[in-house]
Write a structure and sequence with these properties.
The chain has about 240 residues and is an alpha/beta fold. The protein folds into 2 domains: about 10-40; about 45-200, Glutaredoxin (3-Layer(aba) Sandwich). About 30% of the residues lie in helices and about 20% in strands. The chain has helices at about 10-40, 85-90, 95-100, 115-125, 140-145, 150-155, 205-210, and strands at about 45, 50-55, 55-60, 70-75, 105-115, 130-135, 175-180, 185-195. The chain has a 6-stranded mixed sheet. Strands 2-3 form a two-stranded antiparallel ribbon. The radius of gyration is 20 Å and the shape is globular. The two termini are about 25 Å apart.
């Protein structure tokens, strides 16, 4: 028998009705936060970044695929990595379904990592992902957008995001960067999100947050629970 509070329907109804006000207030706060995000100043991008793709070398402008908005998800995958990031993989499992709709709303989405393209494509095939995964190998892209860090960046304090692991210069960070391209072809960075700010891109969390046990995580609040696996490593159910 559960030790949770069990109420008769009348009491249950009144408590849930009162809680609904909090849910609605949070929805309104989230809408306002999104509006505030869209009102932030933009940063003009002048550096000619290029990427290795399955279509050959392509520029940042090319990645828009004729659309005006671009989301780049930064997957933690440095060259010759001896690990495959569970958190980035967990998030990436949600991309293909969303991408079916994003491309019809003037938004292109690509995943980008610093490892050579061949290493990325091997793992992509294993995971059966369909999204475009490009390599920034040999470029400044990861460092300029603070998903990889140089000793100089750390020493000078030129780091926007506060990561405890930021001193680990050989390890990349996950996150998303959003770009806009105007009618003249100029590109602007409009927003960046790193760390737990990317949780909104993980639909599984939204489902779990509705359930009695929630995310059921045993680790610190800023880390993934120990239940998360690469999707081909779960025990059969």
């Amino acid at each position: 028998m559960t030790d949770h509070i069990i109420s008769p329907y009348r009491d249950w109804f009144e408590v849930h009705k009162a809680h609904l006000k909090k849910e609605k207030a949070f929805t309104h706060q989230r809408q306002q936060l999104a509006a505030d995000r869209r009102a932030l100043p933009w940063l003009r991008i002048a550096k000619p970044y290029e990427f290795d793709t399955t279509q050959g070398r392509r520029s940042l402008s090319d990645l828009f695929e004729g659309r005006s908005q671009l989301i780049v998800y930064h997957f933690m995958f440095p060259p010759n990595a001896d690990y495959r990031c569970t958190g980035c993989s967990f998030l990436s499992d949600h991309i293909d379904a969303a991408n079916l709709h994003l491309m019809h709303h003037d938004v292109s989405l690509v995943v980008c990592s610093r490892a050579p393209l061949a290493e990325l494509l091997d793992f992509k095939a294993r995971m059966n992902w369909q999204f475009d995964w490009v390599s920034s190998f040999g470029s400044d892209f990861n460092f300029d957008f603070q998903v990889s860090f140089t000793e100089d960046q750390i020493a000078s304090g030129r780091v926007l995001f506060n990561f405890e692991e930021v001193a680990m210069t050989g390890r990349d960070r996950g996150g998303a960067t959003v770009f806009y391209k105007d009618g003249d072809g100029e590109i602007f960075c409009t927003f960046q999100v790193r760390g737990r700010g990317g949780e909104n891109l993980i639909g599984t969390y939204s489902y779990l947050d509705l359930t009695p046990m929630g995310r059921n995580e045993n680790g610190p609040s800023h880390t993934l629970g120990d239940w998360v696996r690469l999707h081909d490593e779960y025990d059969a159910r």
